[in-house]
């Protein structure tokens, strides 16, 4: 494989690993704010127990997100040097704004949030939690503004050397796809956290390690998911209509529309055949795609034949359907869970065993849906790095492919070890909540690391 393919694989791997953690940390901190607020208002110990437990999950997640984010920024220089040369005047300040506003905000208040219980007043501690939550969301704001600009660029001008400059920061930041992508991603983060709450809580009930906080956490996750999934479906629909307007070739690939047609069917399943430019084994809803995307039964949708270059069909076609399928499964699980809450009057210990196992198996369902969605977004921009303006082949490194292959292998090994350890730590924490119940202190800040080491040792022992 050449340097372009290897660099794309390496960056995709890095992005896939990194996005897992902000997807949790963005929303989890707002959930922690809710837990903390309930404790301040009610003085029920269960809310404080929930806050302490999930603060440790947040700390671990936040740390891995920061580390993986740093390696991503390095790859702009090592694998894609032409990127900053061409659009550094736009990308550089946006990344800098994230550091100067969001990251510094998080760094300032994170210590108070993690170690300030019983050291500062309740109001100060609650405020610190709010500022960390605001900081994580602000971080997503800047990153998604840049990513959205790469999808729907505007507010720029180009000098004779092909260097891009800012004409209007308002237009750059609030580009056509940004509002939809930002809301879609933040909602996805809340749904990911909702099922993380449900999954770990269900596992605690199964393993008989549930404490007084477990029912409240499980109830919070189920209600959050049940409310947000219908909203996410609406937001996703609006995002799709925006994409149809600005990136019609992406929609054509998602829907498997090879040739422009009126009354295009909605393909529930098919096997896209790029050689014959047809869809084999198609299961379709007549005129469904036209109805959804144009709101007319006989609305016209452009086919891939209309475009000189377009993204590969199969990854987008299947990635989108995986995202939708997981979303529908999450909707069914959350609504059934709300029904169970009403049936048992909130007693999660009376939930059917099969449902608890189902929730536990869906602990990371949000990750799967988010990854599938991001693959659709990023692969759908190919072969462009900035849609319609700069191709990936124009900015790729001249580093020998063997060197990239070596670093790619190292990334795979390290990231695989980290993700296994992360999941192992969460499993251990759910099964041994008493060992992680004590509030970390400034003098014993290694508490999370100790828990992690015990969890990894436990996981290694099970594998042996």
Automatic annotation (TrEMBL):
Keywords: Cell membrane, Electron transport, Heme, Iron, Membrane, Metal-binding, Transmembrane, Transmembrane helix, Transport. The keyword Transport applies. GO terms for cellular component: cytochrome complex; plasma membrane. It comes from the Bacteria. The keyword Iron applies. It is a multi-pass membrane protein. GO terms for biological process: aerobic electron transport chain. The chain crosses the membrane at residues 12-33, 53-74, 94-115, 127-150, 182-205, 217-235, 318-342, 354-376, 404-425. It is found in: Cell inner membrane; Cell membrane. One of its GO terms (molecular function) is heme binding. Belongs to the cytochrome ubiquinol oxidase subunit 1 family. This is Cytochrome ubiquinol oxidase subunit I.
């Amino acid at each position: 494989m050449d340097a372009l393919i290897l660099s794309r694989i390496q960056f995709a791997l890095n992005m896939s690993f990194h996005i897992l953690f902000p997807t949790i940390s963005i929303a989890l901190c707002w959930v922690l704010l809710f837990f903390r607020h309930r404790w301040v208002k009610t003085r029920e110990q269960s809310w404080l127990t929930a806050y302490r437990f999930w603060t440790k999950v947040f700390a671990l997640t936040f740390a891995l997100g920061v580390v993986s984010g740093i390696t991503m920024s390095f790859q702009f220089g090592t694998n894609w040097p032409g990127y900053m040369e061409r659009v550094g005047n736009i990308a550089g300040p946006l990344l800098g704004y994230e550091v100067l506003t969001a990251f510094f905000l998080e760094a300032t208040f994170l210590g108070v949030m993690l170690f300030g219980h019983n050291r500062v007043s309740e109001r100060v501690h609650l405020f610190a939690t709010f500022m960390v939550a605001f900081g994580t969301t602000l971080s997503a704001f800047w990153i998604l503004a840049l990513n959205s600009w790469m999808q729907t660029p505007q507010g720029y001008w180009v000098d004779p050397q092909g260097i891009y400059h800012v004409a209007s920061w308002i237009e750059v930041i609030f580009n056509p796809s940004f509002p939809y992508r930002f809301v879609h991603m933040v909602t996805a983060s809340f749904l990911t956290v909702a099922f993380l709450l449900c999954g770990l809580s269900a596992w605690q009930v199964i393993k008989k390690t549930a404490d007084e906080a477990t029912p409240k956490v499980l109830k919070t996750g189920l209600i959050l998911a049940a409310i947000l999934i219908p909203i996410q479906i609406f937001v996703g629909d609006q995002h799709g209509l925006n994409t149809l307007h600005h990136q019609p070739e992406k929609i054509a690939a998602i829907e498997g529309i090879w040739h422009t047609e009126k009354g295009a069917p909605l393909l529930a399943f098919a096997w896209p055949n790029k050689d014959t430019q047809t869809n084999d084994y198609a299961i379709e809803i007549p005129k469904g795609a036209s109805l959804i995307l144009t709101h007319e039964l006989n609305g016209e949708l452009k086919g891939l034949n209309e475009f000189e270059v377009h993204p590969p069909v199969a990854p987008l076609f299947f990635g989108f359907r995986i995202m939708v399928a997981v979303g529908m499964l999450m909707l069914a699980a959350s609504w059934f869970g709300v029904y169970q809450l009403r049936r048992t009057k909130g007693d999660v210990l009376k939930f059917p065993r099969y449902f608890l196992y189902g929730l536990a198996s869906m602990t990371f369902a949000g990750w799967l849906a988010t990854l599938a969605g991001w693959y659709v977004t990023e692969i759908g921009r190919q072969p462009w790095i900035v849609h319609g303006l700069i191709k990936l082949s124009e900015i790729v490194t001249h580093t020998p492919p063997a060197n990239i292959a070596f670093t790619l292998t190292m990334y795979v090994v390290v990231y695989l070890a980290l993700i296994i350890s992360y999941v192992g730590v969460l499993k251990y924490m759910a099964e041994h909540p008493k060992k992680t119940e004590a509030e970390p202190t400034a003098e014993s800040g290694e508490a999370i690391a100790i828990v992690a080491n015990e969890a990894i040792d436990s996981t290694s022992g099970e594998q042996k």
